[in-house]
Amino acid sequence: QLQLVESGGGLVQPGGSLRLSCVASPYTLDYYAIAWFRQAPGKEREGVSCISSSGVSTAYQDSVTGRFTISKDNAKNTVYLQMNSLKPEDTGVYFCTAGQQPCRMVVAGTRQMDYWGEGTPVTVSS
């Protein structure tokens, strides 16, 4: 069973930055696409970003394009989500997920991922 552990969440002011990390064990991420989802209070969960197993392809929700960057470090078996220019509407619990689905479909919500972490909270507020 693949396990995913997120870290890096916290409280940040609007316009600030955070970097989320997702560490996988005990298996390598070489065979999995990794996606970040988020869920704001009172709202449905939504796909934010995804990176393919090869690391070549990425996908982003329109609202984060140009502000968020997803990347992968195979040596550390870790995926990162760099979040810049944060807005209050980015607030929520961010979940790391893994699966073998096409990234665009995962972010669009038409494909489900197989493994989920417990989440890390992000609060953007002044």
Describe this structure in words.
- With 126 residues, the chain is mainly beta.
- The chain is built from one helix and eleven strands, in the order E-E-E-E-E-E-E-E-E-H-E-E.
- Helices cover 5% and strands 47% of the residues.
- Strands 2, 4, 5, 6, 9, 10 and 11 form a seven-stranded mixed beta sheet that branches. A four-stranded antiparallel beta sheet has the order 1-3-8-7, with no helix packed on it.
- It starts with a strand and ends with a strand.
What is the secondary structure topology, with strand pairs?
Layout: E1 3-7, E2 10-12, E3 18-25, E4 33-39, E5 46-51, E6 58-60, E7 68-73, E8 78-83, E9 92-99, H1 103-108, E10 115-116, E11 120-124
Parallel strand pairs: 2-11
Antiparallel strand pairs: 1-3, 3-8, 4-5, 4-9, 5-6, 7-8, 9-10, 9-11
Brief summary of the model shown:
Helix content is 5%, strand content 47%.
